[in-house]
TrEMBL record:
<keyword id="KW-0732">Signal</keyword>
<dbReference type="GO" id="GO:0005975">
    <property type="term" value="P:carbohydrate metabolic process"/>
</dbReference>
<feature type="signal peptide">
    <location>
        <begin position="1"/>
        <end position="23"/>
    </location>
</feature>
<dbReference type="Pfam" id="PF01374">
    <property type="entry name" value="Glyco_hydro_46"/>
</dbReference>
<dbReference type="GO" id="GO:0016977">
    <property type="term" value="F:chitosanase activity"/>
</dbReference>
<dbReference type="InterPro" id="IPR000400">
    <property type="entry name" value="Glyco_hydro_46"/>
</dbReference>
<dbReference type="GO" id="GO:0005576">
    <property type="term" value="C:extracellular region"/>
</dbReference>
<protein>
    <recommendedName>
        <fullName>Lysozyme-like protein</fullName>
    </recommendedName>
</protein>
<dbReference type="InterPro" id="IPR023099">
    <property type="entry name" value="Glyco_hydro_46_N"/>
</dbReference>
<dbReference type="InterPro" id="IPR023346">
    <property type="entry name" value="Lysozyme-like_dom_sf"/>
</dbReference>
Length: 353
């Protein structure tokens, strides 16, 4: 995720939790009786000591075991619409950031690629391992030993943010993404296994089956994650606080409650990072209001707050934001299904040997 969690000083946290005016002035989508920072809206989240808690891994993965959740399919057009909508929220446009690399100072090292794989949380390593299986000789494989060393640190160890042993990594990632379609497809395949497939399973578990609903769950899992090491803000917690999909309740109604809970969580979180991101939920709520037109995602959708229309016909195969010239004959190879990283041994993250 291209999303940094910023720890604030105690006074800022106190003001955010006790003064609706503080949030209202700073965060326009955290206002009104439903979303203002108040005890009525925020007590259920129990955001106490949020910046001092860290959950260590209990097995070979940071993700919940979802093998018992039901599965459902998604067509290529809906996948594209979902990825483009989330890309607008993450990057402000429909240009896919495959070559993006930046050290955000969020404790996760380098953040890379179209959905923000990071060197500090092992998923950038997963991308490189999968890429090396497809193309053994590449410019990124030399970083595997250092990334494996980082992966063996305790999850809460601040040294995971250290990039001193990754000299030249940003250029190597960006250049490879701009020149090799195999690397771009590898990013997409890992992203699908790590986020899209789990999003579909979580959606199906509460009988959300519409294309718009799938896109909403995809955006939520990209933004909030589904790792048990981040239990306060992840998708499973939003589901738990939303409550079950009630008998005879329409999917539109359930998604309305789901998005309301998600937006409240973001507004109530005591920092300066989550509350401003509530604008993306407000845009999704607008799409939900026009359920009849948008539920199948067959038509272009306009994200009014971001000022971008997503059509589903955009070129997603090349990073036109970070790369200068698309190589002649550029074409992505066929996609490959990869395992969801929810059980041990974690085959998605395994080395090439």
């Amino acid at each position: 995720m291209k999303f940094a969690t910023t720890a604030l000083a105690g006074m800022a946290t106190f003001l955010a939790l006790t003064s609706p005016a503080f949030a209202k002035n700073k965060f326009p989508y955290c206002t009104g009786s439903t979303y203002e920072v108040s005890n009525k809206n925020c007590a259920k989240f129990d955001f106490k000591d949020v910046h001092t808690k860290c959950v260590e891994t209990s097995n070979c993965t940071t993700f919940y075991d979802i093998t018992n959740l039901p599965k459902q399919s998604i067509n290529a057009h809906t996948t594209k619409m979902a990825e483009l909508i989330t890309n607008v929220f993450e990057n402000g446009n429909t240009k896919m950031g495959y070559a993006y690399v930046e050290a955000l100072g969020d404790g996760r090292g380098y953040t890379c690629g179209y959905i923000g794989f990071t060197t500090g949380t092992n998923d950038a390593l997963a991308v490189i391992n999968q890429y090396t299986k497809r193309k053994p000789k590449n410019a990124l494989s030399k970083y595997v030993p250092e990334l494996e060393r980082i992966s063996k640190l305790k999850f809460c160890d601040t040294k995971r943010n250290n990039t001193s042993g990754l000299s030249g990594f940003p250029k190597a990632w960006s250049t490879t993404a701009c020149k090799d379609p195999v690397f771009v497809q590898t990013q997409l395949d890992v992203g699908n296994a790590m986020y899209l497939e789990p999003a579909l399973q979580y959606a199906k578990s509460v009988n959300v089956t519409s294309n718009l609903g799938k896109a909403i769950f995809y955006d939520t899992i990209i933004n909030h994650g589904w790792q048990y090491v981040e239990p306060l803000i992840n998708l499973p917690r939003i589901l738990q606080l939303t409550g079950p999909h009630r008998k005879h309740e329409s999917e539109k109604s359930y998604l309305g409650r789901f998005l309301q809970t998600r937006r409240q969580l973001m507004c109530c979180y005591p920092d300066d990072v989550w509350p401003p991101a509530a604008d993306r939920v407000a845009d999704l709520q607008r799409l939900l209001q026009n359920w009849k037109r948008n539920k199948d995602l067959k038509h272009p959708v306009t994200l009014k707050i971001y000022g971008v229309t997503v059509k589903g016909t955009e070129n997603m195969s090349y990073d036109t934001a970070e790369c200068k010239h698309e190589p002649k004959g550029w074409k992505l190879p066929a996609a490959k299904m990869l395992p969801v990283p929810d059980t041990c041994p974690n085959k998605l993250f395994e080395a090439t040997q």
